[in-house]
Design a protein that fits this description.
260 residues; alpha+beta; Vanillyl-alcohol Oxidase, Chain A, domain 3; 9 strands; 26% helix
Length: 260
Amino acid sequence: MRGPDIGKALHAYGTTSIVVEVELALAPAYPWVEMVAAFDEFAVAAKVAQALGEADGIFLKLDSLMAWPLPGYFRGLEGALPEGRHVVMIMVARGNAAAVHDLVRERGGTITLERAYPVEAGVTPLYEYTWNHTTLQALKVDKTVTYLQTIFPLGANIEALIASHERFGEEVMAHAEFQRRFGRTNCSSLQVVRYTSDERLWQIVRELETLGITLSNPHSYVLEDKGARVLAADLQLAFKREADPLGLLNPGKMGRWTAA
């Protein structure tokens, strides 16, 4: 499978096929530097993370935004996560580290950690605090939290991200991963939620949707409930009929599937 055809198997969660071999294109290898930048205001931190992602001359491996109190859950970064401050976790090519310093300083932030990667033995690398590792780090401390998986509207992601943080505060702890896709910078999010009830969780979801934020539901095992994460639902259903006509793969996980 090449090109658009990979949608038959990509993010199908094992319902359409078993992937046995993958070819990946390589990119230049860079010596990376890990950095943490701290900010007093969430909106400023969010705009810095976006600006980093949009900077054509800065080569990034990681651009992850964490609203306080999320950093308070992390162990092993003592001294790098000031109380009450929002942080951007960054992995940047060593030759671009000075540009990150300049941007953070211009926006009133502080670099609280800077170190070479790979890190020394026994030290947790920054990426282990990001993406859905963030949820794991929080769950190590508080077993009552859960999370949502969301995608922000392209071209208005920062406005939606800031609005969602202002609306929910610490109940929905903002956490966004910034990515460059098709020449544009956007963010997806794995917000950590202080769970109180199913009813409240779905109320939060509905309110996020009013801001143009799309949910990829992590609280369902049904493929179609994954929303924007399902890249080609019709293509995947047709491919399952071709590749798995008896419905042996992950039975019950594709809502529209019926055996021929």
